[in-house]
Design goal:
180 residues, elongated
Amino acid sequence: MKRLAALGVVVVICTLSLKVSAFGQETQTSLSEADRTFLMEAAQGGLFEVTLGKMASQRASAADVKEFAQLMVTDHSKANDELKQLAQKKGVTLPTELDAKHSEKIESIAAKSGSEFDRAYMEEMVKDHEKDVKSFQKEAAEGEDAEIKAFAARTVPILEQHLQKAQGIFQQLETAACGK
């Protein structure tokens, strides 16, 4: 009788485990394609910012460019960590390596040096942050998953600050280049 009762407990536990697993998979597939795409693109963008920021913090010739690059590494590493946790919770595996498009951009900027490197890096930061602000604003407004929307909404002001700083530094570099 005790064996039968124990077997019954095992069956109940296994059944509950299967239901929990099935629920986890259901949650995984219930994420909209737009939300999933946002997560993937945000991960690529964050990885790009950190990788390029590390390079620029070493190679930039202007102090304000180096400082900005370090800010990108710090802020985007933090956002990337939060994004990874969120994606994991949603059952989405994020990329851990740059795609070809972002790798080519890094190679193009890496081929430059001195003030040319600084201008190329800051120009890319302006373009990238303009795109990021729009993408994160759209997700914050139109996303379907409440947690992903909240992440996007929390991140928009930081991206806007990055964009303003990048525009200011890029403008200074362009003005200095024209004055030569």
